[in-house]
Amino acid sequence: MPTGRFLGLRTRVFDDFLTGAASHGCRQVVVLGAGLDTRAYRLPWPDGTTVFEIDHREVLDFKQSVLDAQDAVPRAGRVALAADLRQDWTGPLTAAGFDPARPTVWLAEGLVPYLPPAAERELLRIIDDHSAPGSMLGCEVKHGVDPLAQRNFPIYAVVRERTGIDLLALFSPEPRPRTAAELTARGWTSDVYTPFDFTRRHGRGPLPTLDDALAANRWILATRALAR
Ligand SMILES: C[S@@+](CC[C@H](N)C(=O)[O-])C[C@H]1O[C@@H](n2cnc3c(N)ncnc32)[C@H](O)[C@@H]1O
User: Fold this and answer.
1) Which of 111, 123, 141, 217 has most ligand 1 atoms within 8 Å of CB, for mutation?
2) Crossing angle for the helix pair 154-163 and 2-23, to the nearest 10 degrees
């Protein structure tokens, strides 16, 4: 099923990115809009790693209830931080033990396309301001959506049918920022991929179709220079 193929591939790509960042010395992981992300439990983190998961309290509480029922044990220090990314979230993050002087790997997966462009730019600015040299960022963006053409694209149709949620209606219709270029201007190096790049690399995953909504998705894997 297309949704599973897409989400499975995306999970694998960012899993690999995060474990790669850990092997490059990032011992702080900040998952923005973490949702039901369980990487703190699944991935083989080096000793001394802390995973900060930021989301709304209701989401984190629900996830915790499921994890507790499974007696799940994290494989890193784990801090679930209830905060609103539209307000001050770095204050609570720092109070929870985050140290901006240490390299961090940030993850914004399935989050940025739902933010208005101004909020995306502000998020990037904040990430940059709190990134020590050698920090890394994995970020999913979307270069525009066409709700009419893509309404029946399987991923959106399936989610709409199963949950009643019209994901296309949640995407901001305003022109998107050129995120990779903005990161470059801030001294980051970025590699930008489509999901299909990884389908070809791994030999499984979604392939392009007519009016393919995924053609607008970009996965940005970025590193902040060691010195500016
Ligand atoms: C589409 S889900 C993606 C979840 C997860 N990153 C993943 O890829 O499976 C987006 C998540 O971002 C969270 N989110 C959206 N806006 C937020 C905000 N302003 N502050 C904190 N969390 C937010 C939502 O609650 C939701 O859990």
Assistant:
1) 111
2) 100
